[in-house]
Each structure stands twice: as structure tokens, then as C-alpha cells.
Amino acid sequence: MRPRYLSLLFLCFQPLLAVSPDFTNMGRMLRDNRTAISFIDIAITNLTEMESGDNALKTEIRDKFSEALRLDFNSHLWYLQADYSRTYKDLKESQNILQAVYRRLLENYISETWVMLEEAAPMIVRTRDRTARHLLQLGYRDLETSRQFHQRGFNIKPTLHSNQLQFYTDGIKRIRRARRFAVLALIEARLPPSEKAQFQVVTLDDMKAAQEGDVFRQSNYEKVKNMLVNMVGRQLVPGSFKVTRDGNPVLLRTLEVHQDNYSLIISDRRSVWTELVASLKADERYARRVIPPVTPDPERFSQAEIEAMKAEESRRYTEEPATPVPQP
Q1: Per-residue DSSP letters for 116-133?
Q2: pLDDT-derived band of residue 308, with 50, 70 and 90 as boundaries?
Q3: Same domain, 50 and 98
Q4: Which range marks the domain in which residue 211 is found?
């Protein structure tokens, strides 16, 4: 009889253990938005600056990204307070801004990759290397596929935020793979035949060491990076590509492009997300903005008292915060 009583008790207390569907749905949407922010942060951080010093694109994208982060941060606070309507409102505004950031960055990727492939094509054609030509063809194929992802994302309904961001994400991943093929085609075309693996002599000791696992194994990223450092130093592969952005020259360094191809932040740069989040936490005006306004009870206060309270509250919200004293 005990199991039966336990099941009845569980059924009686089940409403107390229930979770609001808004809590689950909002939590999933917030996690997806954070994933989108984390992915695009690498592309924003690695965005190359113009030689002329006019970084209008980077400033524009950084400002939009900062606003998207602020709204995402705001929505997380509303979510903790179980105010799901305001969570949804700020989250959708954040996704709207992220859509514009994704689209602009993908367009910049496509234009820069096209120039990279066009500059690499003459060097590869002169060598008559079949492997290099095949790699170059794969780069052009992924470039065209990325354009199709951009077109599909642009034509989709703007309110379908997750679907549009997914199309742009796939386009950025595909354009990065096109850049990988461009770098590999350059290495294959410019590497001397005596240094290629298929032309090197392999001894019996080398085969035994490979079978026993004594050979030091490197990731593909490390292998290509070491090859690039070697070949750029020997001037076999160009160390940079000059492209244009909005009519201004931009210098793409080959090693930086290689790091971005593997979704890694360039070694001498700091994450834009980290910088902006730190500024959000230290902003006092943000703390004032998220405090919900107090609605006076008309049955307890007179009309004059209500007007005075609203004026005082408006003054507290609009006044500028005091300048913080710098810490030594």
C-alpha cells in the first residue's frame, strides 16, 4: 500500500513542483542568443582596421554590438526577476541588432575573400599544380555557397530571428572554409617539390615510429601555421593581401587570416565582448534604468503627493551619475 500512497501524495503536490513554460522557453532563447553573441564576437574582434585610420565599419559594428549586449544583459536581469514579458521584449531587440551585425560582417567577409582568391589565382595558375588548382576551385565553390546563405538569410522574414541568424552563421563558417582553401592552395603551389610529403623519402624506421606512436602529432591548425611562418619568412607566400573596403585600402595579414579561419581570436587582440561587458557592469546609469518605476496608490496618496513623487522619481532617473573616483 505504501507505493500507492506515495503516488497519491506526488499527484497532490505536483502543481507545486511545476515550472512555468515561459521560464523554459525564455531560458532556451537566452542561451541561443548568448551562443550567437559568442560566435560573432570573434569576427568583430578580428576585424581588420583600415590603413588610413578611418575605421567607420568597425566603429559602427562595435556600437551596434554594444547595444545588443546591453539588451541581452538587461533581458537576463528581467529573466531572473521572472518578468518574462520584458525579457522577451529586450531579447528580440537584441536579436534584431545582431541580425544587422551578422549581415554586415558576412558581406565584408565575402568581399575580402573574393579579393584573396583573385590575387592567389595567377600565382597558382602559373605553377600548373593540379592539387593547388583543385584547392582554389574548392575555395570559389565555398565562396558561392556563402553568397547563397547570405541571400537566403536576407530574404527570410525578419521576425524569424533564429532562422536568419543560423543562415548567416552558416555563411560565415563557409566563407572561413573558403579562406582555408585559399591559404592551402598558396602553400601547395609555392612549396618546392622536394619539400612536399609525396616526394620525400620514407625509411623503415619512420614507418615503425609512426606505427608505435612516437611521432609528435600536431593539429591541422598548428601544421598550417608553422608552414605559413616558414614560407612567409622565405618570401614564398605573400605575408599580406591588400583589399578595399568602402573604397579604402585594407591590409589582410596571412597569419591573422589563418587564425580567424579556425575561429580563434588574433593573438595580440582582446575580446570585444569582454571589454563591453566590463563597461556594462560598471555603468551606474544602467542600474537606474533597470529599476522598475513605482506606481503610487491613489487611495493612499493625494494627487499632489503623487505628482511630487513622480517628479522626484523622474529627477533620479534623468540626473547624471557622479564621476567615479579612479582607484590607485
Answers
A1: HHHHHHHHHHHHT-HHHH
A2: confident
A3: yes
A4: 22-282
